[in-house]
Amino acid sequence: MLLHAHFVFNGPQRPKLKCGKQVKSAPHFLTQCFQELISAFGFTWHEAPGEAEAELAKLNTFGIIDAVFSDDSDILMFGASCGIRRQNECYCDVMEIYTEDALEHGAHLTQGGLLLIALMSGGDYNVGF
C-alpha cells in the first residue's frame, strides 16, 4: 500500500474555548521544529485556517486525501468519510478504520445519528448530557 502522509496544523482561527475552558491560541513551541522535520523527510504539511481536524475532514470529503489518521473522533462530526485511529494506547500497531459506508450501513448511523451521539456524549466543544 502506497502511503504519502500530509500533515495539517491548527491555524489562527482555531476556537479559543473548548468545553468552556480557554485553550492556548499560540502554536506549540515545537511546531516549527516538527514542520522542518516533516519537510526534511519529504512530506508535505500546511496550516489550517482553524481546527486541523476540520481541515482534514474537508480534504477527505473532497477526495484530496483518502483517510484521516486521528485519535480525535471529531473528524466524523466534521464530515470525514474515512477515519483511522489507534485501537488503544498500549497497542500502537493495531488500528481501527471507520468509513462512512460502514457506519451508515453496518451500524445504521447516519450523519444525524452521529451528531446526536456527539451531543449526548460530549466532546471538545460541549460537556454532553
Describe the structure in your own words.
The structure is a single chain. The chain has 129 residues and is of the alpha/beta class. It has a domain at 50-121. 33% of the residues lie in helices and 19% in strands. The chain has helices spanning 31-40, 52-61, 74-77, 100-106, 111-121, and strands spanning 6-9, 17-18, 21-22, 44-47, 68-69, 82-86, 95-99. The strands form three sheets. Strands 5-6-7 form a three-stranded mixed sheet. The chain has a two-stranded parallel ribbon with strand order 1-4. A two-stranded antiparallel sheet has the order 2-3. The N and C termini lie far apart (42 Å). The model has no long low-confidence stretch (mean pLDDT 86). One of its GO terms (molecular function) is 5'-flap endonuclease activity. It comes from Scleroderma citrinum Foug A.
Nutshell version of this structure?
By secondary structure, this protein is of the alpha/beta class. It contains five helices and seven strands; from the N terminus they run βββαβαβαββαα.
